[in-house]
Amino acid sequence: MSKETLDSELKSIIADVLGIDAEQAEALNEESGLFGHLPELDSMAVAGLLTEIEDRLEIIVEDEDVDAEMLETYGGLLAFAETKLSEA
Asked: Buried b vs exposed e over 21-60: b needs ≥16 C-beta within 10 Å?
């Protein structure tokens, strides 16, 4: 999967899970804050987001993979997804 395709899919997942509009999700860039910055992304939403990422990207997210750095920015989440896809 290309980085552009992954970026688009990840933004679609975020919009769907958090219930934000597509334009808000499309505006995310690598420096955009996620956890603690998007009110929709609370601790309960994190679980749903990670489950949806697993399902749509066909990857497995282990408990030890999840840390604050991964969820701090959109770029961190994108880099995480890229790494997991390259391991698959």
From this structure: eeeebeebeeeeebbeebeebeeebbeebbeebeeebebe
Neighbouring C-alpha atoms within 13 Å toward the C-beta of 21 = 2
Question: What residues contact 66, with CB distance under 8 A and at least 6 apart?
Answer: 46, 50
Dump pLDDT digits (tens) for 3-23: 999 999 999 999 999 999 999
Sign of CA dihedral 55, 33, 27, 38: positive
For the full predicted model, state whether its pTM sits above 0.85: yes
